[in-house]
Design goal:
The strands form 6 sheets. An 8-stranded parallel beta sheet has the order 11-10-9-5-2-1-15-14. A 5-stranded antiparallel beta sheet has the order 16-17-18-22-20. The chain has a 3-stranded antiparallel beta sheet with strand order 6-8-7, with no helix packed on it. The chain has 4 domains: 335 residues, Alpha-Beta Barrel (TIM Barrel); 53 residues, Oligo-1,6-glucosidase, Domain 2 (Oligo-1,6-glucosidase, domain 2, Alpha-Beta Complex), CATH 3.90.400; 35 residues; 77 residues, Golgi alpha-mannosidase II (Immunoglobulin-like, Sandwich), CATH 2.60.40.1180. Helix 9 links the parallel strand 10 and strand 11. It has 545 residues and is of the alpha/beta class. The chain is built from 18 helices and 22 strands. The chain is globular and about 75 Å long. It binds alpha-D-glucopyranose and calcium ion. Alpha-D-glucopyranose binds next to loops. The site of alpha-D-glucopyranose (GLC) has 9 residues, from loops.
């Protein structure tokens, strides 16, 4: 078993715009992040993943990049980035950047030049003549953000493909020049001292054909570009040419990935992938429709991936999802216990854990929920307007947008109980969650029983106990609400037991008669021995004797 840095260290994801503002313009920035490095070192993380900090017109808040080799002026300068890398390094923290290369921004120089048909950049993108005498898009594909995946540009007389917003034209990876340019970008940042990349929607970069897709409720056309052979080939090339030449890590964002493809992606392509199955267990057909959450589903799903893949990228939150306590825990009465239970899930499964900013505080979704005049994510307006067009009552439309509103995870980090939660001295670009007086870093750092203190203890434990870092995963068969497993390494063994639900549940005898001492629990002074029941969300990490 190789003991690469990313195996023993936890990742902390920062969505820079909302983390910490250093100059009072209401927008988080690199110097703000630098000022919180001590906070992160104290928490015990070893890697920061920065959501995009490159120059961007922000149609998709950085996921539309107009210059890969410079920093968004709202966030700072290249010098600030260098200093952030150096300051992080002093504290034993490495920095991973977001690599968004399925598409560029429509303001990227390549795309602007590509509008000239005789320019070599024309072939960097999918420019095509439409159907029916060019009056209709070249195919029936729909965008992830709604509507057709094609936009017509009259001055070009052609349509271009965008699997996301029209401001995010897709790069054509069939063009070897695209590969060469991306490799140049990778080396530029790796040579500056970054530790790797989180690769945005990386399992759909290769469009196998541009034929019509099977009509679907959500995103038509995927069978022509999800996880195609060419996709694997490109990643093998990037790996051979660049990744394997550096001490770095890569993690792919791979929507809808199956085990087979995940195994391929993690074999001489990337180090890890984010699977999405557990993000769909409380969704019905479309992300706007939620369905009752069953703890058993979460367990089955996580177990499947634990057993199926040697090393997982474990996560419960990111900048695209609503907050995990709202989904898998209890935002009310058992906020604290369920937050700690979810921390136990995240940090004791085998793999690299990814903590999303504020998750360690138990941050929650916006309440009262966002209204259209407050929406910042462009997708919200589209979804809301579409629902209204189909005569959904306003109140219901608001609720449905809320179910998948990415702004929930993008409210400012809650640092303390002062105005604007200590995020900025100015006016924050997006509303602060009004619950910041109760949920904030300062209060939680001072409280040994807080969710943050639990994260800190658990991160320290994971680091020093090789069972939790490198140990094998052995599931234990229990009823649906209980999740239990062993992690063993070189003759030592840990037992992890959790109640995934808010109800009292009975423990199987084999578990409570186990000779085990408690290393960490989310209830004060709790012991496992001869304990026949678990309380709401009660969880244990134990050492077996
Ligand atoms: C990924 C990102 C998301 C972005 C999309 C398009 O899913 O996580 O935030 O909108 O890709 O780049
Ligand atoms: Ca700022």
């Amino acid at each position: 078993m190789d003991k690469k840095y990313f195996r023993s260290n936890a990742v902390y994801q920062i969505w820079p715009r909302s983390f910490c503002d250093s100059n009072g313009d209401g927008i988080g920035d690199l110097n703000g992040i630098a000022s919180k490095l001590d906070y992160l070192a104290d928490l015990g993380i070893g890697i920061i993943w920065l959501s995009p900090v490159y120059r961007s017109p922000n149609f998709d808040y950085g996921y539309d990049i107009s210059d890969y080799l410079s920093i968004n002026p709202e966030f700072g300068t290249l010098a600030d980035m260098d200093s952030l890398i150096a300051e992080a390094k002093k504290r034993g923290i490495r920095i991973v950047m977001d690599l968004v290369v399925n598409h560029t921004s429509s303001e990227h120089r390549w795309f602007v030049l590509s509008k000239q048909k005789d320019s070599p950049y024309h072939a960097f993108y999918y420019w095509r003549v439409g159907k029916n005498g060019n009056s209709e898009p070249p195919n029936n594909w729909t965008s992830n953000f709604g509507g057709s995946a094609w936009t017509f540009v009259p001055e070009v007389g052609e349509w271009y493909l965008h699997l996301f917003a029209p401001e995010q034209p897709d790069l054509d990876w069939h063009n070897p020049e695209v590969i060469r340019e991306v490799e140049r970008i990778l080396r530029f940042w790796l040579d500056r001292g970054i530790y790797g990349f989180r690769c945005d929607v990386i399992n759909q970069i290769w469009k196998e054909s541009l034929d019509d897709g099977k009509k679907k409720a959500y995103v038509t056309g995927q069978e022509h570009y999800l996880m195609k052979e060419g996709n694997h080939k490109i990643l093998q090339t990037l790996n051979k040419d660049v990744f394997s030449q550096y001490d770095c890590m890569t993690v792919g964002e791979t929507y809808d990935v199956d085990l087979l493809n995940a195994r391929r992606f993690t074999d001489h392509e990337l180090d890890m992938v984010f699977q999405f199955e557990h993000m769909n267990i409380d969704k019905f057909v479309l992300p706007i429709f939620d369905k009752k959450y069953h703890p058993r589903k979460l367990k089955e799903c996580l177990f499947k991936w634990q057993k199926g893949l040697d090393w997982n990228a474990n996560y419960l939150e990111n900048h695209d999802q609503t907050r995990s306590i709202e989904r898998f825990g209890d935002a009310g009465k058992h906020w604290r216990e369920s937050g700690k239970m979810l921390a136990t899930v995240l940090l004791t499964l085998r793999g690299t854990p990814y903590i999303y900013m504020g998750e360690e505080l138990g941050m929650l979704d916006m309440k009262p929920i966002f209204t259209p005049d407050e929406y910042k994510d462009g997708v919200d307006h589209y979804v809301y307007d579409t629902l209204r067009k189909f005569h959904f009552p306003a109140k219901l439309a608001l609720k449905l947008v809320h179910n998948c509103n990415r702004d929930n995870a993008r409210t400012p980090m809650q640092w303390d109980a002062s105005k604007e939660a200590g995020f900025t001295t100015g006016t924050p670009w997006i509303k602060v969650n009004p619950n910041y007086e109760k949920i904030n870093a300062k209060a939680e750092e001072a409280d040994p029983e807080s969710i943050r203190s639990f994260y800190k203890r658990l991160l320290a434990l994971r680091k020093k106990d090789p069972c939790l870092t490198y140990g094998s995963f052995e599931p234990i068969c229990t009823s649906g609400r209980i999740m239990a497993y062993y992690r063993s390494y070189e003759g030592a063994m840990d037992l992890i037991v959790m109640n995934l639900s808010g109800r009292k549940v009975r423990l199987p005898k084999a578990l409570y008669t186990e000779k085990a001492s408690v290393l960490l629990s989310n209830y004060k002074g709790a012991a496992l021995a001869f304990k026949k029941h678990l309380r709401a969300y009660e969880s244990f990490v134990c050492k077996i004797h």
